Here is the input.
Amino acid sequence: MPATKLDGTALAKTIRAEIAEQVAEHVGRGHRPPGLATVLVGDDPASQVYVRNKSAACAKVGITSLEHRLTPDTPQADLDALIDRLNADPEVDGILVQLPLPQGLDSKRALHRISPAKDVDGFHPMNQGLLLEGLPGLRPCTPTACMSLLAHHGVNLKGLRAVVLGRSEIVGKPMALMLLEQHATVTIAHSRTKDLPAVCREADLLVAAVGRPGLVEGFWIKPDAVVVDVGINRVEDEELAARIFAAEPKKLETLRAKGSVLCGDVRFGEAMQVASAVTPVPGGVGPLTIAGLLSNTLEAANQNR
Here is the structure.
């Protein structure tokens, strides 16, 4: 029996509607609308799409979007100065520096310069430390999205064996901490893990966040496991596509028609035949990540006023 699709799009729509109501109440109490400043450095096409989508999402819930675009040759000092201005701007509640930055710019230096109170991505060491201690704070949006999706679909994490595939500060590490909070037993796996497929097969819950298209094959997945696919990758190579989309002929058709196709880190068609529930890509974690960003911006506005 095929697995259940864990649909993030519908849940994100519900969450955005709730945020829109909360923003309206916030404004109704005499406060200005929350303000989110986005900083885009360079002309990376994917980053431009992400920033445009975030700005559109802000507009739909009543959050003011303030876009700042810098050229690819912007020096680090100018980026630092912009972040300092935004930190001091009373009209700005949240600051988002779109990653990746062009070569030559230090992303950690930029992210650490953002005021923790305006760090709506949840990447600042202070907010990461609050998460480590289980204290309230602005939390990374993608792991929060995963947790929201699991809670919405009634996945009881207590006592589950969870494997997080990926160890980034943005997803893997905070994801592991959030799962620990809910009493899961957590293993973090990565590229140097010995016998990676066998480790993944031990998981009742497998979270894949490595940015490698179709890495996780069906035989990596424990029967009836829950699979959360955080990856979003654009595939253009037909030879690669033939391998990872063998169980998804429609993906191959899309590639041949459009020249590219989106997929996650998990071979979705294969996973659907083994797991009990799987997030699709697109339409799974992604929409909820943006909803989490909006929620963090509203929370920051409430804390900063």
Q: What stands out?
A: Residues 141-286 form a domain with the Rossmann fold fold (CATH 3.40.50.720).
